[in-house]
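Second attempt. The first submission of Low affinity iron permease family protein had a stray character pasted in from the spreadsheet, which I only caught after the job came back as garbage. Lesson logged: always re-copy from the clean sequence file. Corrected sequence (146 aa) follows.
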Amino acid sequence: MKFIKYYFSDSTRKDFWGAITTKVIKWTGSTAGIMTANGLMLLWLVYGYFKHYSENSQMILNTGTSIITFIMLFLIQKGQNKADKATQLKLDEIIYALETGNNKRLGIEKLTEEELDQIKEEYNLDEEDNDEAKEEEEIKKDEVKI
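This time the job returned cleanly.
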């Protein structure tokens, strides 16, 4: 009974399902997962051949692929969310570590599309100012050479 309480308590349930989804995502993207999918498809082809591709064999394939596709959609999305979060944390750490970095940009992924567009415009303006400054600097260098 302790075993069941341990694995289905609130604190371990999140870790339990997280571990399962991580393992499934890794396995389905591995060579073994791809070979298994190909093997199942080959099995269906052989089964369908002997059953003359009956309605039943078609329904088995359609139902199976629909269920697997539905589940994989959510598993892939969970994996992508985890990867995005890890990448964002790494980028935040880099910004935080740089002395010249703008700490206002930490947590920028929580902004709306409009707010992100405004920030992008600010960077575009900064680039234009830098281009103008570089041109003025080159002109001054040319004047000094003459």
